[in-house]
Amino acid sequence: MFLGAEITGLLIISKIQSIASNQFGRTANEAASINSGLGGMNLLGRLILPLISDLLGARKPLYCLSLAVQAICLGCLPSALANHSFGGTLACAFIIGFFYGGGFGMIPAFLADQFGAKNVGATHGVILTAWAIAAVCGGLIFTAVYNAQSHIYPNDVSMWYNLDFRWILAPVLFSFLLSLFIPANLRDRKLPRAPGETFRYRFINGRLIRFTGCKVHMLTAAEEEAEWQTYLAGLSNLPQSKPVEVVSSEYGHSRHSGNGVDLFSQNGLGKVHVY
């Protein structure tokens, strides 16, 4: 998912000066100024999107939005170049740069949601390999395709980047579909499956849908809460090697069961950490 969220911005940032010069005849100083503006959008994305994700309390919807918007921009870029629309090309590039920066800014919080705060350091290094792959492999493919297109259409500069933006669309769309099914909610990962359950999905509105055979059932908030409390009660009844210790803090209450299970309650929502 992260590779698809970052590959477009990475390649746009590295190629925007040559696009401005080759496609629109801009001077070197003008192309450098455009690149600086793109860097400013990158910075804004790193500041604004993480703030919004904290206000929403979720990162997955914004990653889905980022991939969807980048896919739309990639679909528009070939037409903008073919029509020699400088404003349209810049608008697509700046929007992509904004979401490129935002994707980076949300990484630590997203990893904390998925793997716990203590594992952010290790997993952050792993997820950045996707960025490295996008930079190395994406850059090599982009350059090879560009060189081939420039030889095929030596007198039509509008076609030089056309195929590049189309192939980048494939990993972005695949990442978008993949992001829809990432179990970002703790309950999606920990709540035991019902008898016969084959698949579950949580809508952006927070409602959990359960697929059992050919039947589809959308759980009410009360049903889901009842199942979650039953699950937490089962964990608290596990054999304990030492007494349960209850610790209160500004983040809620933590019960250390002594058997490798931590039960957290914050704002009425239970969280479980198994170690």
Structural description of this entry:
The structure is a single chain. The protein is of the alpha+beta class. The chain is about 65% helix and about 15% strand. Strands 4-5-6-7 form a four-stranded antiparallel β-sheet. A three-stranded antiparallel β-sheet has the order 1-2-3, with no helix packed on it. β2 and β3 form a beta hairpin. α1 packs parallel to α3, α2 crosses α4 and α3 runs antiparallel to α7. The two termini are about 25 Å apart. The C terminus is likely disordered.
User: Tally the helices: what do you get?
Assistant: 9
Unreliable stretches covering 5 or more consecutive residues: 243-275
Strand content: 5-15%
Q: How far apart are the first and last residues' alpha carbons, in Å?
A: 26 Å
Shape type: elongated
Walk across the major sheet and give the strand order.
4-5-6-7
Mean pLDDT: 82
Structural class by SSE content: alpha+beta
- As a whole number of angstroms, the C-alpha radius of gyration is 23 Å
Short synopsis of the structure:
With 275 residues, the protein is of the alpha+beta class.
Q: Which terms would index this structure?
A:
alpha+beta, elongated
What are the SSEs and their pairings?
Elements: H1 2-24, H2 28-56, H3 60-82, H4 86-105, H5 107-115, H6 120-152, H7 162-180, H8 186-190, E1 197-202, E2 208-212, E3 215-218, H9 221-236, E4 245-249, E5 252-256, E6 261-266, E7 269-274
Antiparallel strand pairs: 1-2, 2-3, 4-5, 5-6, 6-7
